[in-house]
Amino acid sequence: MKYVFIINPNSRQDGLYTLMEQIKKYFKGKTVIIEKTQSMNHACHIARKYAFKEEEDIHMFACGGDGTLHEIVNGIAGCKHITLSIIPIGTGNDFIKYFDHLDREDFLNFEYYKNPDIISCDLLKVNGEYAINTVSFGFDVHVARHVNDFRKKLPLRGILPYYLGMLSSLRQPISSEFDIQIDCDKIQEHIFSFVVITNGRYYGGGYKPCPKALINDHMLDICLIKDIKRTQIIQLAKIYEKGEHLNYPELAYVTKGNIVSLHTNNQGIYGNLDGEIRLLKNPTIEVEENKIRLCIPRKK
């Protein structure tokens, strides 16, 4: 077994220090390779290098935030010889919140990887690119674009960048027109504020669009938030964070499906894939079954 750590050096310094100390303590005498990313999408290229080495089993560790995880997933999707663990030392780590019986510190404790849980995980595929957590369109994409800008300019962590991003996004229209089809059914309404397709349960710093989503049920979980006003956004944020919008069918439509298509007449639309912003035309989101083997820590 080879242990490969792909590390984003721009991660939290306290997390990096803890990680290096843990590696020294628990992997002494084992084959350990540490790879540090140097630029955008570098983690994907590093991961792909090991994806081609099918003759040996690899336990890979994604050390960073959701962006690092997103890149690595796109490098190893479908590889049966690679098992992936997540070391959450980034500015945003929404995907691991799916495992609500574990804290962030549990993922950093290699003692809990001695008898781990091995879980098959589905992926979302969007025009050829994978997402492990969420794909979204609408108001939250505008928020994500502002969040990325704030993180580049200011040393902000946690939920604060998301709140600042939301405030900045309120300067523009909240809702947009979407032509949506779920499997064979066309959605009759066309004006939505949020269009969110999930594999995991949390995104945007802790919001729960699809609180019943499962990462291995081979289905897309879909949340459509209908046209809302600026005066409603604060109230919505509170119930959206708790997943309580399911109690308001006049506000939210939550369902499951296999394929979601957004028809944009070949016009570009911004989408949010695990926090990464992409300009897409006529995006189609589908589920890819059991594309990643996750190694999740188990408490003693």
Describe this structure in words.
- The protein has 300 residues and is of the alpha+beta class.
- The chain folds into two domains: 127 residues, Probable inorganic polyphosphate/atp-NAD kinase, domain 1 (Rossmann fold, 3-Layer(aba) Sandwich); 159 residues, Sandwich (Tumour Suppressor Smad4), CATH 2.60.200.40.
- Helices cover 25% and strands 33% of the residues.
- The chain has seven helices and 17 strands.
- Strands 1, 2, 3, 4, 5, 6, 9, 10, 14 and 17 form a ten-stranded mixed beta sheet that branches.
- α5 packs across α6.
- It is globular and about 60 Å long.
- The model has no long low-confidence stretch (mean pLDDT 91).
List keywords for this structure.
10-stranded mixed beta sheet, Tumour Suppressor Smad4, 7 helices, alpha+beta, 17 strands, Rossmann fold, globular, 7-stranded antiparallel beta sheet, 300 residues, 2 domains, single chain
- Alpha plus pi helix count: 7
Tertiary shape: globular
Task: Output the CATH class name of the largest domain.
Answer: Mainly Beta
Percent range for helical residues? 25-40%
Tell me the CATH architecture of the largest domain: Sandwich
- Major sheet details: 10 strands, mixed
Q: Look at the helices and sheets and give the structural class.
A: alpha+beta
